[in-house]
Amino acid sequence: MAVENQFSTVGKILYVQVLMAALVASGFFMMGGWKYALSPVLGCGVALLPNGYFAFKIYLARHKHPQGILNAFYSGEAVKLILTAALFSIVLQISSVDFLTLLIGYLAVLSVFWFALFFWRD
């Protein structure tokens, strides 16, 4: 009897992105405490929230006809880009945010998706 996979590929990627965010936050926390970890944690959040929205949008369209899925994909991607820009503009208003470590957190979470495209096979 075959065991059905509980998570879709998108779900797995989001899960690993959350793990990466926790790893980045832990690393920066151990190096300098919460004050030092704030910027990379915010960067991780700027990556995670729009990705989560996009994944949810596609999940809701999974039973639609192909054109409906395509429409959900394009509208989800557009909102994801707008949400990312809005989150960056909000986060960068915080005076204690260090842009370099914010970017490290952001890129660390996004790198999960980039590497998953090359190494993850269902």
Quick structural summary:
With 122 residues, the chain is an all-alpha fold. 80% of the residues lie in helices and 0% in strands.
Q: Which descriptors would you attach to this protein?
A:
mainly alpha, 80% helix, 4 helices, 122 residues, globular
Describe the model.
The protein has 122 residues and is mainly α. It is built from 4 helices and no strands. α1 packs antiparallel against α2 and α1 (9-32) runs antiparallel to α4. The chain is globular, with a radius of gyration of 16 Å.
Which runs of at least 5 residues are low in confidence (pLDDT < 50)?
A: none
How far apart are the first and last residues' alpha carbons, in Å? 18 Å
Strand and helix order:
HHHH
Q: What is the makeup of the main sheet?
A: none
Q: By helix and strand content, what is the structural category?
A: mainly alpha
